[in-house]
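can u do me a favor
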């Protein structure tokens, strides 16, 4: 009976995820692959939820590192960086469908059943959320955008958006980014949430093959989405 290490466990969990999907990542399956007993895994993880959370964080870290490398090759232009991140995220999602499903599409209580298991912008302090928001922050700091007035934002969202603003400001401050806090108001926060919702929605439809019509040129459709999003906030279309 061999002794497994934490690295062995995570590597095996990642292999099961990629080859068979999130549902295949179980303590019993990992133990079987490693030739050990399932109880031996409890030395490292208290439950499957605990293991899945660590696996989710590993995937997020790898995605963020890949996108950070891409963005690092660009000029310090927030718009160019943000749209490069959008394209890189889509490319990663389409080529890492099982990881995308675990991290971005598993409803709480199912594949990733730990509370808050799905990575969204509410996890602003995590690597992926951080690089996305830092690029958005650079745009807000350096561009005059077309932003709705506070009275155009649905009143039912005000409390949630204000709470999210506080988290965004914390992330921006911790990153050392120079950002005027007065530019982060209800209108800008609302636009950011709408931007993410449309980007995420489009990519999710593509990943699961649920776009309303067959797409012969999906890249062109995605570029058109980015151009629309750019124009709506007063930026040059992302080409």
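np, heres the sequence
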């Amino acid at each position: 009976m061999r002794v497994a290490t934490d690295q062995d466990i995570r590597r095996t969990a990642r292999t099961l995820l990629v080859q068979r999907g999130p549902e295949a990542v179980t303590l019993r399956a990992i133990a079987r692959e490693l030739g050990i007993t399932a109880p031996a895994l409890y030395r490292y993880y208290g439950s499957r939820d605990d293991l899945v959370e660590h696996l989710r964080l590993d995937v997020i870290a790898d995605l963020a590192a890949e996108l950070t490398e891409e963005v690092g090759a660009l000029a310090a232009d927030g718009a160019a960086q943000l749209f490069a991140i959008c394209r890189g995220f889509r490319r990663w999602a389409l080529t890492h469908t099982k990881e995308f499903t675990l991290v971005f599409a598993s409803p709480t209580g199912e594949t990733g059943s730990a509370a808050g298991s799905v990575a969204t912008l509410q996890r602003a302090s995590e690597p992926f959320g951080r690089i996305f928001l830092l690029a958005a922050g650079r745009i807000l700091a350096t561009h005059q955008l077309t932003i709705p007035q506070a009275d155009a934002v649905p009143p039912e969202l005000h409390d949630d958006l204000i709470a999210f603003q506080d988290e965004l400001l914390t992330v921006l401050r911790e990153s050392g980014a120079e950002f005027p806090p007065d530019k982060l108001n209800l209108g800008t926060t609302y636009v950011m949430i709408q931007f993410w919702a449309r980007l995420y929605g489009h990519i999710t439809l593509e990943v699961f093959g649920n776009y309303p019509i067959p797409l012969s040129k999906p890249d062109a459709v995605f570029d058109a989405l980015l151009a629309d999003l750019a124009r709506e906030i007063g930026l040059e279309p992302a080409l």
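The CA atoms of residues 157 and 167 lie 16 Å apart. hope that helps!!
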